């Protein structure tokens, strides 16, 4: 029997080493910061997901650059916020845009964006993926949160640090992206900025499907920093007013409503 799918979760033990020798591996998912993982061959992998709590540029046991180079051939790539932090640092330190994902067709993003420089670096990465057709975004803050009516998602708006100047311009367009799907959208500034950049770049976009989760907290929660999401009508108006590069895009706006702490 050959190993085809591998999932590694919660491996944050600095003393744990995982060595994988499998030329038949087709999908790979890892969620952890400190574990040292080495894979002898990644050429057979079509789908890869790498989740970390944040990007640690000085952690030596997770060679980020080598991992990304070895995964450049994948067709589906899923990451969370550490990846935009890594890209932004690469622009700042090495002037490297990582324009090597030529086969990537589906890009999946999970979590918030805290800085405009991270967002711009991520958009620049995407416009240099010539085969990209679909982008899927989930703005939940925790990978382990379960989606579903029985457990409403938790969201607390974090500051969005904007660039002091005009920022770093991105050159190019999302030439083949036809579909963008957004889950757990809370209407926060960082999320709207992300969507705005995507719509301005996706020249052949056909579908933007967005699910808005409005959270309303009780008055006691406000003192702890919680803020209710804006009304659906206001958020919907903002989304439909965004400029688009595509003249044929259809925006599908769905919403759910949760009261928390009442």
TrEMBL record:
InterPro entries: At1g61320/At1g61330-like, LRR_At1g61320_AtMIF1. Residues 2-215 form the At1g61320/AtMIF1 LRR domain. Coiled coil: none annotated. This is At1g61320/AtMIF1 LRR domain-containing protein.
């Amino acid at each position: 029997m050959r190993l085809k799918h591998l999932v590694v979760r919660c491996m944050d033990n600095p003393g744990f080493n995982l060595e994988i020798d499998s030329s038949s591996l087709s999908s790979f998912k890892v969620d952890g910061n400190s574990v040292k993982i080495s894979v002898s061959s990644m050429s057979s992998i079509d789908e890869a997901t790498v989740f970390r709590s944040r990007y640690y540029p000085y952690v030596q046991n997770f060679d980020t650059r080598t991992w990304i180079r070895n995964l450049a051939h994948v067709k589906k790539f899923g990451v969370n916020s550490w990846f935009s932090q890594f890209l932004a640092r690469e622009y700042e330190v090495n002037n490297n845009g990582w324009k090597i994902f030529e086969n990537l067709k589906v890009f999946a993003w999970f979590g918030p964006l805290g800085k405009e420089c991270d967002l711009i670096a991520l958009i620049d990465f995407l416009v240099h993926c010539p085969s990209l057709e679909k982008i899927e975004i989930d703005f939940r803050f925790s990978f382990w949160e379960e989606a579903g009516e029985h457990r409403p998602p938790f969201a607390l708006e974090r500051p969005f640090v904007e660039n002091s100047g005009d920022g770093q311009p991105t050159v190019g367009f999302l030439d083949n992206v036809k579909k963008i799907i957004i889950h757990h959208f809370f209407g926060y500034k960082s999320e709207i900025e992300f969507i705005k950049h995507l719509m301005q770049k996706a020249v052949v976009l056909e579908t933007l499907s967005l699910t808005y989760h409005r959270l309303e907290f009780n008055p006691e929660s406000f003192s702890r920093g919680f803020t209710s999401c804006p009304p659906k009508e206001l958020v919907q108006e903002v989304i439909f007013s965004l400029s688009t590069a595509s003249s044929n895009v259809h925006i599908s706006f769905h919403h759910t409503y949760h009261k928390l702490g009442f």
